[in-house]
Specification:
Length: about 450
């Protein structure tokens, strides 16, 4: 238990740099913002998580109420006609009592179990820990859904850009194939060159169906995430890929990681497991309950308001599982096993969180270097392709040289788009790993 308390203090001690707005707004994309808002309002996973939080909170309130007296109000009216052949009816005829009577009763009954050894308090702590874990699970589901929406959106925009690039390349190769065919017809180029140019055009056309299929998959994925299959149709028109972002240099990834909801849920479950041990331990000792009744009762037409109608009672009850220690020992062993499991899960979650944060930081750093290198490569290959076109028009280079220049530029441009996509999606992975939004370098500069 000391380990849990110390970790809780450590969580509360940090104050990481939080984003001033929802984290996805750092992409500065209005359509992404709209998709996120739609998902927060319509995603069914979040609806299920919210319902579970409502149930857990209700159970926690019920556990807290067990520490208070239970008071009930009762009232009844009864009309009875005794059989003269029954024992009571026969006796009433013998002593001259009426066989018919009306009985009216009303009263207040109170029961209160005294929390002598802390079992009820431990039950309240266990229920509160369960509610806290469920709330953290809801926050984890919210983070997961918003991250999935952003990831699918970025993948969609990258695919659309790659499709536009492939279409542009196919158009250029089609124009080149037409030009080579014309030159072959004039005897200025060989039929081999004409066939090769047409084959290059066909290869460019063949690359597009797979991209269009992947776009359809992402649109369907966004339809499920937003809870509306028709809504993502507004995203079908291509749009630029938003640039990625990273935490500001002043942000401490370790401090940000401590806000992860899965860590909070694991810690709450560990606390609940400790409380359940206290619940079982309390069952080794007696349970004392107090009870009392105040009310009125009357037969026939006598007034309920009469002092003669008042009835009252009180007492105490003792319950002790004195000869049930074998079962209690088994329950205690199970509770301790549950605590051991919860602590192991907490440690496992913390280890995974640390690894995910390290991976996210490395991906952001290396991804930025990769994008910069590929941008330089594409710039140089664009110049080389333009030079090859001019040289081919003058007959200084062969068609093979021109097609190689085109292919190299297409490959590099596609890799650049994929690298930009990877960097943007690494930003989402960093948000997921660090438990939510964080202040970016641009925001830190602005606030400073």
């Amino acid at each position: 238990m000391r380990f849990i308390i110390l970790s809780a203090l450590a969580l509360g001690a940090s104050s990481p740099a939080l984003a001033q707005e929802p984290w996805w707004q750092a992409f500065h994309d209005p359509l992404l913002n709209a998709a996120e808002e739609r998902a927060l309002g319509g995603n069914l996973t979040l609806e299920v998580a919210a319902a579970r939080v409502e149930q857990a909170r209700a159970l926690a309130r019920r556990a807290g109420a067990s520490l208070l007296p239970a008071v009930s109000l009762s009232a009844s009216a009864e009309e009875t006609r005794q059989s003269l052949h029954s024992p009571l009816g026969s006796a009433s005829r013998t002593i001259g009592l009426p066989r018919d009577y009306r009985l009216y009763q009303a009263g207040v009954d109170a029961q209160w179990e005294i929390d002598l050894f802390g079992g009820l308090s431990a039950g309240r702590r266990a229920a509160a820990s369960g509610a806290a874990a469920t709330l953290a699970d809801e926050q984890a589901a919210r983070l997961s859904v918003t991250a999935d929406v952003a990831d699918a959106y970025l993948h969609l925009r990258a695919l659309q850009q790659r499709l536009a690039l492939a279409q542009e390349q196919a158009d250029l190769r089609g124009q080149l194939a037409l030009l080579v065919n014309q030159r072959a017809g004039q005897g200025l180029a060989s039929q081999f060159d004409a066939n090769r140019a047409q084959a290059a055009h066909a290869a460019a056309m063949a690359a597009m169906p797979a991209l269009r299929q992947a776009i359809a998959v992402d649109l369907d994925r966004l339809g499920v995430l937003t809870g509306d299959r028709a809504w993502p149709e507004r995203l079908r028109s291509p749009a630029p890929l938003p640039a990625g972002f990273a935490p500001s240099p002043e942000a401490d990834p370790a401090a940000l990681m401590r806000r992860r909801p899965d860590l909070a849920a694991a810690e709450a479950r560990a606390a609940g497991a400790e409380a359940r041990i206290a619940m079982v331990r309390a069952d080794y000792y007696p349970h004392l309950s107090l009870g009392g009744l105040v009310g009125v009762a009357t037969v026939g037409g006598f007034s309920l308001a009469s002092s003669d109608s008042v009835m009252a009672g009180g007492g105490a009850a003792l319950r002790w599982r004195l000869f049930d220690f074998g079962r209690l020992d088994a329950e205690m062993a199970a509770a301790r096993g549950g605590r051991r499991e919860a602590l192991a899960q907490w440690r496992q979650t913390a280890l995974m969180a640390g690894a995910e944060v390290g991976d996210a930081v490395a991906a952001l750093d290396e991804g930025a270097h990769a994008v910069a290198a590929l941008e330089r490569e594409v710039d140089l290959l664009t110049r080389a392709r333009d030079q090859a076109r001019n040289a081919y028009a003058l007959g200084a280079v062969s068609l093979i040289d021109l097609l190689d220049a085109d292919r190299n530029l297409l490959d590099a441009s596609d890799r650049l788009m994929q690298s930009r996509e990877t960097l943007a999606r690494a930003s989402v992975a960093a948000v997921r790993a660090m438990g939510g939004g964080f202040e970016t370098a641009q925001e830190a500069t602005h606030h400073g």
